[in-house]
Amino acid sequence: MRFRAKMIDIGCFNHFTRVVNTISKLTKTCTLRLTTDKLYFILSDKVANGGVSMWCELSQGNFFDEFQLEGVSTEHNEIYMDLAAENLSRALKTAHNAKSLKIKLTNKHCPCITVAVELPSLSRVSRVVTHDIPVGVIPRKLWNDFKEPSVPDFDVSIYLPPLKTMKNVVERMKNLSNFLVLEANLNGEMNLKIETDLVSVTTHFKDLGNPSWGDNGSQDSTQDRDPETMMDVKVDIRKLLQFLAGQQVNPSKVICNIVNKRIVHFILLHEDVSLQYFIPAHE
Known about the structure:
This protein has four helices and 18 strands. It has helices at 10-26, 85-92, 163-174, 237-245, and strands at residues 2-7, 29-34, 38-44, 53-59, 66-70, 79-84, 100-107, 111-119, 127-134, 136-137, 156-159, 179-184, 190-195, 200-205, 231-236, 253-259, 263-269, 273-280. A hairpin with a 3-residue loop joins β7 (100-107) and β8. Belongs to the HUS1 family. This is Checkpoint protein.
């Protein structure tokens, strides 16, 4: 197996760093999947067991000037590895004013992702800062554990308000309860609700808009429903806040899909990055 890539555009450095910083806020460890044309950051905790799940997809051509990959075989030209997202984020912070950034798979006592950052220098000799990030290469027989999640057969799909606004609301609610009810309808309305024995608080959002999903059939069951009818899901407020507070990608749109009483599915859309995040309902 071989992998090496190079990046020289400062805008690409900064954007890639923001993506990795976001991943590191969402999870301590994740799986990095490399293919010839894409990178994937995957967290596949079992939603059925109460864990969150994440799928982040990047087109390598929008970030890297050079990208070479030789996977486990000609038939399966991919590499899967586990890594600590925080370590990669920390390594990229040194690339703020870099002339170039090189990433490659190496073997230094153990498999590593080696990040080499070439920094500006007043002399003719360039300064290179190198970070070796240990990884665990995942064997081919386990790859099926990391399939792309399917969009759930949701009851409501709605665009979210600005994430910063929503984060500020949820942060205040966190002081009142450990759980939050997120509800929305097909009329572009969404509510965030806290209900305890001592207090009941609701924040209302209107005119958010509902995405059209075309012919995929996900909303077939909603056609005859009153658009005012609310569908809801009760979630751990810390998991929701972790998602809202970690975003540095500056997405153009964020879609929220609700499966009534079961799961909430977020999709962040950027021109060259998409991130999906699943939070299961709290029983």
